[in-house]
Amino acid sequence: MQKIYLMLLAFLLTSCWNNTIKVGFSGCLSGKLSDLGVAARNSVIMAVDEINDVGGINGKKIELIIKDDAQDAETAKKVDQELIDQKVVAIIGHVTSEMSLASIDIVNKNKTVLLSSSSTTNQLTGLDDYFIRIISSDKVQSDRMASYSKDVLKANTVSCVYELSNRGFSESWFQNFKKQFENIGGKKTFEHSFTSQDNTSYLEIAQTLCADKSDVILIIAGAIDTAMLSQTIRKIDKNVKIISTGWACTEELIKNGGRAVEGIVMPQAFNTMSQNKKYLEFSEKYIKIYKKEANHSATSAYDAAKYLFETLSQLKDYKKLKDNLIDKKFDGLQGEIFVDKFGDAVRNQYLITIKDGNFVTLE
Description:
Elements: H1 2-18, E1 20-27, H2 34-53, E2 61-68, H3 73-85, E3 90-93, H4 97-109, E4 113-116, E5 131-133, H5 138-152, E6 157-163, H6 167-183, E7 188-194, H7 202-211, E8 216-220, H8 223-236, E9 241-243, H9 251-257, E10 265-268, H10 277-290, H11 296-312, H12 321-325, E11 328-332, E12 335-339, E13 345-346, E14 350-355, E15 358-361
Parallel strand pairs: 1-2, 1-3, 3-4, 4-5, 6-7, 6-8, 8-9
Antiparallel strand pairs: 10-14, 11-12, 12-13, 14-15
Helix pairs in contact: 2-11, 3-4, 5-6, 7-8, 8-9
């Protein structure tokens, strides 16, 4: 009798397990760079709740397992392996390039899709691997900013500083920018770097940048570091033009930068003024749930989750997930996104600035 009971219990447990689809989320949820990760996590939760509220995928509910990579390479590897051991069909993440680079060998070895909404590093471009992204590579964005600096700002010299905790993004972004800027006639690109810490000397960095006496200062860092550097630079030079990257384009930039970040220009795959009906409905719901506006990380992560769920709904064998995510188009919140055969995305790009304490799309 006991044997029959145990067999029945095992059957019921197996049946319950088979009625869920496990999906992982891995991103930075703590520390100075957590603004991107928290926004992305929020949107993924929202997408999961929506699909589960209508019965899940082919009758199976999504079980979301959330991990904090703490913007630390070893932690990223550890939590991704934990997710793989828990039999997730895919991992949505990471939100920074450096963490995606840290985990790429693990996901490739285990043939588990790593679907990123914001890792743009060129080091993962054009590879037949298990890394898939729905955002364009940083070369697309850096080339755009190089042209803007030369053609619109009329800059001949640019002084750049990049932060090293996300080196897979920041250093390659700088190198691409420098190459393009000088190819189209820029005369000089100064290079500086730093690692963000609690005792970071923003004054020392700002003094070094301003000493270059360049036409434009380029800051490649997270929102808080970009805000603090901008404030310090403005105390030394009120008129120098400052540009940045999409990495800094979150509400933390405005919150911590105040008037010092007014007029900063950044490239972004996110139109702050989009009138797309799907985006407006998403934005309204996000604000209602989380009491704040959805930034680019939130919007892109929602697109990633929806794309994943849409693809899973068409599959009987989840081992074929990777092949069904690549070389196809899908409708995102703000328009069509194409993912090529290498898992790299092609989508519209915009220039964003800050005006009167709000993000505004320039073009």
